């Protein structure tokens, strides 16, 4: 290879490196992470559902929809939890927002560390439809978030030894928006001892 070509390649490589380090020094991030984009899309889709879908509590009851309120997206609130499966777990009769009782059975304890503290949540299964139910209180409850607790969707199958908990997707039950719905409260054990400044806030 001719010396002039080698010199050309060296110059091009040097220019690229200078550009990369310049971006790093300035703290610029030209492309947001896929996680942030995923969360933004998730919130956009939920907003569209609440505003337009016939199954939305706002559409069903013909009440004004003002938009949902969220904490800023923070990936540190997405954690892996180990699963302690339960055989013949405790049966709960949870009080609901309309003063009924709904029966659930504990199927697993989820153990995880979050922001330097260890936490446990009990995963329940509905006696009515067999669906899993994960609800919790935390130190923001009745302050910046719904006082009767928030819910968290979970992808879980029996036999799994770990699950992902993403508190950026913590959401309010329909009872946080209006009356006319049956919303179970979390079991008393599911009281996280730190503020979960992630997910949905109070509806205003």
UniProtKB/TrEMBL annotation:
The reply to whether Transmembrane figures as a keyword in the UniProt entry is yes
* Keywords for this protein: Membrane, Transmembrane, Transmembrane helix
- On the tree of life, the source organism's domain of life is Bacteria
Q: Where are the transmembrane segments?
A: 6-24
Instruction: Note the InterPro entries from the entry.
Output: DUF1684
| Protein name per its UniProtKB record | DUF1684 domain-containing protein
Q: Which organism is it from?
A: Marivirga arenosa
What high-level taxonomic lineage is stated for the organism? Bacteria, Pseudomonadati, Bacteroidota, Cytophagia, Cytophagales
């Amino acid at each position: 290879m001719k010396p002039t070509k080698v010199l050309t390649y060296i110059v091009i490589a040097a220019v690229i490196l200078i550009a990369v380090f310049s971006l790093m020094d300035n703290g610029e991030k030209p492309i947001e992470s896929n996680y942030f984009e995923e969360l933004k899309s998730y919130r956009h889709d939920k907003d569209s559902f609440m505003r337009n879908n016939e199954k939305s509590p706002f559409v069903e009851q013909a009440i004004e929809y003002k938009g949902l309120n969220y904490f800023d997206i923070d990936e540190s609130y997405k954690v892996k939890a180990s699963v302690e499966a339960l055989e013949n777990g405790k049966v709960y009769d949870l009080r609901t927002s309309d003063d009924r009782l709904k029966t659930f059975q504990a199927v697993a304890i989820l153990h995880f560390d979050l922001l330097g503290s260890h936490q446990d949540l009990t995963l329940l299964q509905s006696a009515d439809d067999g669906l899993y139910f994960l609800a919790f209180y935390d130190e923001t409850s009745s302050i910046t978030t719904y006082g009767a607790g928030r819910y968290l969707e979970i992808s879980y199958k029996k036999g799994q030894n770990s699950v992902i908990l993403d508190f950026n997707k913590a959401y309010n039950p329909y009872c946080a928006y209006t009356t006319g719905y049956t919303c179970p409260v979390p079991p008393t054990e599911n009281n996280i001892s730190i503020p979960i400044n992630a997910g949905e806030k109070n509806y205003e």
